[in-house]
């Protein structure tokens, strides 16, 4: 294999790549020195340092590896070493933009516009890095196929193609989830400075979460650096006879998978640790006179000599106010409406979920009967449909349990459009989860098409559940709650959001994999379905423990 015969020569380009990585590492090191010279650091600068530290390590090693590749004589070895080196370069570049996002956040205003722009640049960089990793992997497999008498398996090409689509969808979900969080969060005018006080624990918990996310991203970068160092040493120690004339297939496959899997995890961890771009209420509050401190009657200079009349008038108004009636017309007043409002949102959530679950369970029974009576499905798919039916049932139970366990503590608010649409969309997804499992009913003539559709619907259901949990968390983060009474439940909701996100990724990955590899063996679908069942079982168990925690907290209150 001669690199000069290829369309792209990795050895010739290695020197320029080494110089680029070295220059970027030097700039990052200079930025770290400048940040260390600041005598008044804040959390944003500290998190930027964490990002820059991981980027510095990745770029420094990458410059060294590309320098080694520039002196390589065996083309197959140079190409294989280029794969993990490309991942290091992309990871280091993304770490630079992630650190810049945190530096922008340190100087942003309450609206978060500058942070939003910096995050958008980082998301764009992540898409570019993921796309070029895919192109590099595909070119590597093609060159290995044409020049070393090695034919990579078809599934490896499809895996590379599916990786590009899946990672693009996942990266797109990050800004989408942040946009939904901004839209589902209570307006700033309904919040108070109490949210920002240490007694509520809301801001402190969010800061701790971002700290952990930034540190986890740095750790994943270090893990990939160590993996690349070990891999490069192993590849360099392999003699020339182990590369020519035929390169072993497992070497090419492992190099491709390693160069895509671990950088992707580190990339997603960095995106997860980006600063929040949600608007924050100003710490300056308008001094308002409490309603209870205001006089019930309007001051009238002519009544200065009649204090008893004013007192009597105030007593009448107070009595009418306590009864919720207007003192003049006798109609229902604001206090009565507020009393009705206290439990209105709770009744809305519980009633809507009970109706949805009743319909879903009815459809589940019909679907189970059809599966037992329908004999035209192969046995392996018959059992698989049974597993998917069980996962659908667990999804309905998990959604209903989450709504019932925490709905009683919802604040007294009038439901917004999000509170109306999200439960209805979840109910529609629950309906589709069962209907898809009867292929003759929905017109899906192939079992594989039904399985792919089910995974995609399950992914959509989990995304809707994550949005609903985010909306509930924003309601519980509003004013009117004591920090110690609700902080633990808000942290559980945050964990539930992550669990729903993991389930959504599994569902979408199963559906996308089914489209990319249409002739994949059935055990792959069993693997995705089993992982989804485990996630849903964990969710149901967590809801049970949350209910137990509520009972203990209220009993000791």
Automatic annotation (TrEMBL):
Organism ancestry: Bacteria, Bacillati, Actinomycetota, Actinomycetes, Micromonosporales
Superkingdom of the organism of origin: Bacteria
Organism whose genome encodes this protein: Planosporangium mesophilum
Keyword line: Membrane, Transmembrane, Transmembrane helix
Protein name, entry field: Uncharacterized protein
Chain positions covered by the region annotation Disordered: 276-305
Biased composition (Basic and acidic residues): 284-294
Coiled-coil annotated residue ranges, if any: none
Residues spanning the membrane: 18-36, 48-71, 83-105, 117-142, 162-180, 217-237, 249-269, 344-369, 381-405, 417-437, 449-469, 499-517, 523-541
């Amino acid at each position: 294999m001669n690199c000069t015969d290829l369309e792209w020569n990795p050895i010739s380009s290695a020197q320029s790549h080494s110089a680029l990585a070295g220059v970027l590492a030097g700039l990052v090191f200079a930025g770290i020195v400048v940040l260390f010279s600041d005598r008044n650091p804040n959390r944003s600068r500290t998190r930027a340092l964490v990002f820059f530290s991981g980027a510095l390590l990745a770029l420094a090693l990458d410059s060294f590896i590309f320098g080694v590749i520039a002196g390589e004589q065996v083309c197959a070895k140079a190409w294989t070493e280029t794969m993990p080196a490309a991942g290091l370069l992309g990871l280091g570049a993304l770490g630079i933009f992630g650190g810049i996002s945190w530096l922008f956040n340190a100087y942003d205003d309450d609206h978060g516009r500058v942070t939003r722009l910096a995050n958008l640049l980082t998301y764009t960089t992540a898409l570019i890095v993921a796309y070029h990793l895919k192109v590099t992997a595909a070119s590597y497999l093609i060159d290995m196929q044409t020049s070393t008498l090695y034919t990579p398996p078809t599934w490896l090409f499809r895996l590379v193609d599916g990786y590009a689509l899946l990672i693009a969808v996942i990266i797109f979900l990050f800004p989408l989830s942040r946009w939904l969080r901004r839209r589902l969060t209570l307006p700033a005018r309904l919040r108070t400075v109490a949210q920002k006080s240490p007694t509520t624990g809301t801001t402190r918990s969010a800061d701790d979460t971002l700290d952990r996310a930034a540190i986890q991203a740095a750790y994943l970068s270090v893990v990939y650096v160590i993996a690349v160092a070990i891999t490069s040493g192993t590849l360099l120690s392999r003699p020339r006879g182990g590369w020519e004339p035929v390169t072993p297939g497992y070497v090419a496959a492992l190099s491709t998978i390693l160069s895509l899997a671990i950088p992707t995890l580190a990339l997603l961890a960095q995106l997860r640790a980006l600063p929040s771009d949600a608007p924050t209420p100003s710490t300056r509050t308008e001094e308002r006179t409490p309603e209870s401190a205001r006089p019930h009657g309007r001051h009238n200079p002519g009544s200065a000599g009649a204090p008893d009349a004013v007192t009597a008038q105030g007593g009448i108004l107070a009595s009418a106010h306590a009864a919720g009636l207007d003192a003049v017309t006798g109609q229902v007043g604001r206090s009565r409406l507020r009393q009705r409002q206290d439990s209105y949102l709770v009744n809305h959530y519980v009633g809507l979920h009970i109706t949805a679950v009743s319909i879903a369970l009815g459809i589940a029974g019909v679907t189970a009967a059809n599966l037992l009576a329908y004999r035209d499905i192969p046995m392996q798919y018959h059992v698989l449909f049974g597993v998917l039916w069980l996962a659908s049932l667990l999804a309905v139970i998990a959604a209903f349990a989450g709504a019932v366990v925490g709905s009683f503590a919802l604040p007294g608010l009038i439901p917004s459009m999000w509170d109306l649409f999200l439960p209805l969309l979840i109910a529609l997804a629950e309906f589709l989860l069962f209907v898809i499992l009867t292929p003759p009913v929905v017109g899906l003539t192939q079992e594989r098409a039904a399985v792919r559709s089910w995974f995609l619907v399950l992914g959509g259901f989990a995304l809707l559940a994550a949005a609903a949990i985010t909306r509930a968390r924003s309601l519980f983060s509003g004013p009117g709650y004591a920090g110690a009474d609700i902080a633990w439940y808000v942290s559980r909701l945050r964990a539930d959001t992550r669990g729903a996100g993991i389930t959504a990724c599994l569902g979408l990955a199963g559906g996308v994999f089914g489209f990319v590899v249409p002739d994949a063996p059935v055990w792959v679908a069993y693997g995705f379905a089993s992982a989804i069942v485990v996630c849903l079982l964990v969710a149901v168990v967590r809801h049970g423990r949350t209910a137990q925690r509520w009972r203990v907290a209220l009993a000791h209150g």
